[in-house]
Structures are given as C-alpha cells and as structure tokens.
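Q: I'm writing up a methods section and want to include an example of the input and output format. Could you take the sequence below and give the corresponding predicted structure tokens, formatted cleanly so I can copy it straight into the document?
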Amino acid sequence: MVQIGRVCYINFGPEQGKLCVIVDVLDLKRAIVDCQPTGVARQQMPFARLSLTEFVIPVARNAKSSKVAKAFHVAKITEKWQETTDGKSIAAKLRRANLTDFERFQVLVAKKQKSLLVKQEVKKLAPKK
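A: Here is the clean output for your methods example:
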C-alpha cells in the first residue's frame, strides 16, 4: 500500500539498489522520495521504479530531509532490510557479480564436489539388483 513513510527499494535508474522513503504522493504514477542515509536526494520518482517494502516509518507529509533521516536511523531500517529475503538475495547477487576469476573457479570446483557427493549418496540409497 502506498503511503507517506513507506520505505521503498529503487529497482531501476541511477539510484538503483538503494532504499528510500515516500515523503509525498504527487499523482497516481509519481511520488516524492527522500533518504539522505542511503544517498537518495529528495526527488520525484515514478512508482514503476519503486518496489514497496513492508516497512513504514512515522514521518509527516513533506517532512524535512533531516527528520526523514532521523526516523530512518531510529527505526534501523537498513538492518531490518538486510534480514529480509529480498535483501539477502540482492546482497548475494551483488556478491556473485563482484567475484574474481579465481573465486568463480573455486565456486565451480565446490559445485562439482557437492554434485559428486550427492550422486554417491543417492547411489547408496538405490536398491541393488
């Protein structure tokens, strides 16, 4: 539900990957968002670029950036976001994207070893003829 104080994840554009707070709703397609702690300056943004989260912080309509930042910090939204399923999967994608060639090779070898162990265990469970 779109409402003042709703925390959103920006899924497209130059601010992609950051959290922001809805400060005001302009019309059916746009809102004013702000969040200085995550580096999002106050700006209007279409709802198509926002993914609403379950978090809501208590801020007034058109609240100053400092009040939004303080409420964001007091509610510990960043820590709560990192504990959610979406936050964890986004962090995992970012971690995989930043692997070096050698680290990718290590992941490949580990996957092969895991697959081999699983095949061996399944073979033990299969009935013998």
